Amino acid sequence: MGRLHRLAKLLLSTAFLLVACVICHLILIASWNQSTFLLDRISIDCDAINGVNISELDNPTLAKWASWKYDHADREMAIYATSPGEASTVVDRDSHALFNETIHGLSSCFDNIHVVTSNRSIGWGGHEILTSMYGCAEYLAKQEHPWKYYQYLSGFDVPLKTNLEMVRIFRALNQTVNVEVVEPPHQTRNSRGELTPLRIYKASMSALVPRAAMNAVTKEHSAITTAVIRWLNVSPIASDELLWPTIFGNMRRLPIPGGFDARLILRKKSKRQSETNLKQRKYPRMNINVKITKSNGIIAATSRDVPVRYWLGRFQIWRNDKDEELCHGKMTHSSCVYGVGDVPNLLKRPELVAHKLYIDYQPAAFFCLLKEHQRRSMDAHNKFNASVFSSMPFVELARGVDIEHLSHPELLY
């Protein structure tokens, strides 16, 4: 009961407005140490949990999807699944029984947490992730809750921005989709020999999608979206990173509000990269308004001039990436697991979340970031200025600026 109460009180301690769509599955919870669960069953006292009042904030809301390990989940949900928002949780058939019971028990205390049990096993890189991700987005788009942005979260993300900071960033993005775009392996037919409904593009799954765009995808353009998903589900390549850039990057054939022309973006990126020597390639730097702060002996070592990319959903370092030397943790599955040495850099980053941190690898990094996040969340005089994000490439292109006249073309890198 104590563990559940800790989670509930943390949930209620942070006044976030968001919509959360969570997928919890065996792949990410298989490493549980079951001895940490001292209860044979979950006993829930909803009256005790709901005894805390929270203030309603008139801010844009976020829609989030995630897959979590439990020890990570009870801290992530303290930030992302608070009462003013909506949470749709998908638990797959292989989830541990106690985990399943805990999530269902939590939902019984909150009207805004909805649990769906999937009869499928959800695995890393599998097509079930795509189906579940879109199912969450579709569910959230049908809700009357006035959320403004959908944000995708994957397992082991840690927030780098407070709710207030994210609200300011989303306002600066001005209802535009923000997602990475890369050219995928040449693929025009799936395993059945069927042609692609739209030109396929690849990206990180960490998309930021405005409500109008998500409504268009799941409602008036749902037929073409469904056709793309069906094609991807029998594609020989990993499908989970292909949906959002494909749907939002085909503006000429699918005019989604806040979308973009991926061909134009890739052409500009290719031109800029060809003009730069491979060994000299670094992400460009930009003046981001973050300040050095000190509170209770904790220093948020920040810099105004930081490396910036055109997509803001998450900060992730890959093996052989331009920023690989910035990883002071370890590489797992070709991706950096951040450690204590990464904290100063992470506190500078303009992205919304850091991916990835393991609670059982140099946990001081994990808790330091969460503590700093909580401190800034309680700062009523937070001076974070997000105006610079209004000059991001996708925002200017949506305003009609020619791609040759962008304020920061160097960000398309």
TrEMBL record:
Keywords: Glycoprotein, Glycosyltransferase, Membrane, Signal-anchor, Transferase, Transmembrane, Transmembrane helix. InterPro entries: Glyco_trans_14 (IPR003406). The chain crosses the membrane at residues 7-32. It is found in: Membrane. GO terms for cellular component: membrane. It comes from the Eukaryota. It is a single-pass type II membrane protein. It holds the Pfam family Branch. Pathway: Protein modification; protein glycosylation. GO terms for molecular function: acetylglucosaminyltransferase activity. Belongs to the glycosyltransferase 14 family. This is Core-2/I-Branching enzyme.
